[in-house]
């Protein structure tokens, strides 16, 4: 291999490495944003669930509150 060929390959590898570093940082930022979005959505879901429960309590009793059927 000639010196020129090695330098060209090294330059190409350096460019690929720089591109990959940038891509990894971009993906890492995206994952962090998505994690925050998921947490916000989870909190909103919990709040909506609580509001729905407060507005219309369930008519179904818990198992320990139910009277046993007559055949017991």
Automatic annotation (TrEMBL):
Region called Disordered, residue ranges: 53-72
Coiled coil: 3-30
Pfam families associated with the record: SlyX
Keywords: Coiled coil
Claim: Zinc-finger is one of the keywords in the record: no
Family: Belongs to the SlyX family.
UniProt protein name: Protein SlyX homolog
